[in-house]
Amino acid sequence: MSTTPAPLRTALALAATGVPVLPLRAGKAPFGNCHQCVNNACGGRPNMKSTGPCQCPGVCHAWAAATTDPAVLTSPVWTAAWRRAVTVAYHPGAAGLSVVDLDNAAAVGWARETLPATRTVPTTRGEHWIYRGAMSSHNAVRPGVDIKSTMSYARYLGAGTGTMTDLPDSVRALAVKRPSTVRPTPHAVATPAPAGNGACCHRAPTYLDRGITMAEQRITNARSAVHTTVYRTFLAVLSTHGRCGCLTDAHVTRLFTAAQAKGESLRHCTDAWTNARTRLGL
Q1: CB atoms within 10 A of CB 229
Q2: Nearest Cα residue to 153 out of 22, 10, 17, 1
Q3: Among 109, 126, 171, 208, whose Cα sits 20 to 30 Å from the Cα of 84?
Q4: Contact yes or no for 220/199 (Cβ under 8 A)
């Protein structure tokens, strides 16, 4: 009987067709940064501005870890990861593909009425529509719809059905119509000015920067329950700084970057931030 883990067999078959793959652990999350790559020391920055793969031999940095090299996929470090993996993911953009991730029945109905037919793959709650052609990845381009292509990963859920067609302008246009949904903006943390003269007691750079740095370190040092740690850290930051308006887009981006380096998706970060604000009544 073969000792090759089932996810690895699937991954090798996909890699042989030119599709870069990576393992996903429980919770459909990628493996987190290795010790050598903590704080992006190796230069890999998943879902941010870098376009190349991480050069670390470990299984880290989400989409940047995806590879077609069978020697890497079957190396001892990767084999150990495959034994813990629950499923396989791939980097659509590197394979020249774009995935329209439809998260519910309403989104699927919208796609059937709006988008050109292409190869479809059933998911737990909806469908993946796969087009030939790469583009930038965007979350929440409309309710229940994400686009996964470059600098993103998608679960491999089977070959699907239907003939794959070229990426249409109607999908590219989705990313143009609502660019503000791609990443947090200052409006995501804007709150009414405090009473009195409106002065912010946290605008001293050392106080605020120290707080953000400590929050980044707390997320980076998490060894388990990363999603919970991210949420509680966001909650702590917002409880201290969320009502006076001192947080900027740059501060939020630092927190999101730390969370994404631990394997959190942009969507999970956005949800955690929104839930924290809701709990605090912001």
Answers
A1: 20
A2: 22
A3: 126
A4: no
